[in-house]
Amino acid sequence: MPTIPTPSRNPKSLSGLLPFLKPYRARIGLALVFLVLAAMATLAFPLALRSLIDGGLMQGDKGAQVMALREHFVALFAVAVALGVFSAARFYMVSWLGERVSADLRNAVYAHVLQQSPEFFETTQTGEVLSRLSADTTLVQTVVGSSLSMGLRNLVMGLGALGILVWTNPMVMAQVLAVLVLIVLPALWFGRRVRKLSRASQDRAADSSAIAAEVLNAITVVQSYVAELRETSRFAQATNAAFDVAVRRSRARSMLVAFIIIATSAALLWGLYQGTQAVMAGRISAGHLGQTVVYVIILAGAFAVLGEVYGDLLRAAGATERLMELLASRSPITSPSNPAPALINQAGCAIDFESVNFHYPSRPGQAALQDFSLAVGAGQTVALVGPSGAGKSTVFQLLLRFYDAQGGRILLDGVPTGDLSLADLRGQIGIVPQDAVIFSSGALENIRYGKPGASDAEVKQAAEAAFAHGFITALPQGYDTFLGERGVRLSGGQRQRLAIARAILKNPPLLLLDEATSALDAESERMVQAALESAMHGRTTLVIAHRLATVQKADRIVVLDQGRLVEQGTHAELVALSGIYAGLAALQFHT
After folding, report:
1. Three-point CA angle 125, 126, 127, nearest 5°
2. Which residue of 117, 149, 265, 470 lies most exposed, with the fewest beta carbons within 10 A?
3. Alpha helix positions (H), 14-125
4. What is the Cα–Cα distance from 175 to 97, expressed in whole angstroms?
5. For residue 16, what is the DSSP state?
């Protein structure tokens, strides 16, 4: 069973983004150049200010003073222009990078989830995946496209300002630095708490998303049981739980920011006080003091921003952990490294189940199939019947390799299914499920899903074969009519006929029909049954049916009970056995 690793709850988890950043090394390098240039322009401003005070304002000659002021203001304006240009360039580069990386990350996670076997979705809610694809990737985008750049810029400015202050005021800044070291230790403790609460907050938000996705996908059932208030209350409880954790996270983060700002400001104000004392004692000039004041402001602002950015990084670390967990999950169902060539035989596939034993990972103590053996010749039609839970749908699941059997093997035209690539195996199989899946698009694209390269004429031909052309052309925009989410604008029988048309268009050598006519009325069932018989001609077909009238013409009927094959033969032979099938037949046909 795929397992989700235990999160490390560490900012180092942001390193999981490195593979997504690597393709854009040149842009990252250019963004860093602009970042450093913008920081240097900011750090140059206090130097220009000192020069203005000492060289312009302190001139004795008024004429020389006016000329000097002009020169100094031109220099200040040049610094401002450089700062604006470099900051704009940095902002554009990192914003582009954030959008691109988040899009790549979202695509990678989505593509990876689509490769997972149904076993993955037995333990992972769809809403949880959607939360990670939306909320978590948005957090990553914010950090990569804004917070990280802002943090780096302020780090460069802070270190630069600190270095200049140490160089120009070594004794005072030595005392300040000693105090700053004492500030870092409690800040790290606060940071760990914020990180844990950030992860918990995102998990609780995902819980509410999972509830919403589940309920909205079953809205008709919810409303039919008048459960709107119950589900609203359940969703409110989940959102309140998320709110409570978010409040705790915000409280901890606020305390962290307040501590950093107050502590650093106190330390730097002490240094500023020492500077004013030096001016009064004549040890430094007024321009030197002005320069020191601006550098102190830059350093204090940089520390304040870094405190904010650190909180954003902690939240992004939690989001990255959750996304990396999805990318780290591995499906137990994969294509072999050296797959056997697929044998495409339009006359049908021969199928062999050899002593297959299987239980679902979520139900290890209950066998779904026990010592199941079945040989189906190419072109044969075999019906699987039996009570609910007998293992009929499991046969289809194993044929499609949604799961692998724990014992025995399954062969297609003499080749074990595990030796074929998943694409080759599933490319030979067409399936019409009991609950027809309709996508949010038109009838044309829904049918073409079975064969993406099919022409419009081929799609309409398949629709006619499934007796779907009539109702499709009666729709407002015909084949281009939007069918609604999950086909809600169609009846159950219409959705089923679209699914049948999709399988007919695919034209595979092996057809799997899971109660394919169960949602049709009597007249439509006769038409579709005729279409299916035409489509099944010359192809291997496995049919699951509860209504025995639909499978009487099958070449063979296989009866399953509690995962075992208990009877097989034609309709007449099985009735004569007076076993399970005979009992089902007597009940249905007598009724």
Report:
1. 90
2. 470
3. 18-21, 25-52, 62-114, 118-123
4. 40
5. G
Distance CA 460, CA 468 (A): 9
Residue 356: how many other CB atoms lie within 10 Å: 24
To which residue do tokens 């020069």 refer? Answer: 51
- Find, among 197, 185, 81, 100, the residue nearest to 145 by Cα: 100
* Cα→Cα distances 167→59, 221, 295, 302, 449, Å: 27, 73, 12, 19, 70
Element spanning 195, H or E? helix 170-216
Q: What integer is the mean pLDDT of 449-454?
A: 86
Cα–Cα distance, 378 to 511 (Å, whole number)? 12
360 contact partners, CB below 8 Å, separation of at least 6: 122, 366, 368, 403
Domains and CATH numbers, the chain: 12-328 (1.20.1560.10), 351-590 (3.40.50.300)
String of DSSP letters for 417-450: GGGS-HHHHHHTEEEE-SS----SS-HHHHHHTT
Return the CA Rg of the chain.
35
Evaluate whether 309 touches 75 at the Cβ level (below 8 Å).
Answer: no
| H or E element that contains 395 | helix 392-399
pLDDT at 114 over 80: yes
C-alpha 205/C-alpha 242 separation (Å) is 5
Please give the Cα distance from 68 to 47 (Å, whole number).
15
The per-residue DSSP string of 321-363 comes to HHHHHHHH---S----SSPPPP---TT---EEEEEEEE--TT-
Q: Is residue 538 exposed (0-12), middle (13-18) or buried (19+ Cβ within 10 Å)? A: exposed
Using a 10 angstrom Cβ sphere, with 0-12 exposed, 13-18 middle and 19 or more buried, the burial of residue 27 is middle
Task: Print burial letters for 197-214: b (CB count within 10 Å at least 16), e (below 16).
Answer: bbbbbbbbbbbbbbbbbe
Count the Cβ atoms, other than its own, within 10 Å of residue 476: 8
Closest residue by Cα to residue 197 from 133, 144, 246, 141: 246
pLDDT digits (tens, 9 = 90+) for 283-304: 766 677 677 777 777 777 777 6
Please tell me the distance from the alpha carbon of residue 169 to that of residue 274, in angstroms, as a whole number: 10
Query: What's the pLDDT score for residue 8?
Result: 43
Q: Is 507 helix (H, G, I), strand (E, B) or coil?
A: coil
Per-residue model confidence (pLDDT) at position 159: 82
- Is residue 209 within 8 Å of residue 127, measured between CB atoms? yes
Q: C-alpha angle 302/308/309, rounded to 5°?
A: 85
> Hey, what long-range contacts does 525-530 have (CB within 8 A, 24 or more apart)?
525/550, 527/467, 528/466, 528/467, 528/496, 528/497, 528/500
Structure confidence by residue, pLDDT tens digits, 574-583 = 888 888 888 8
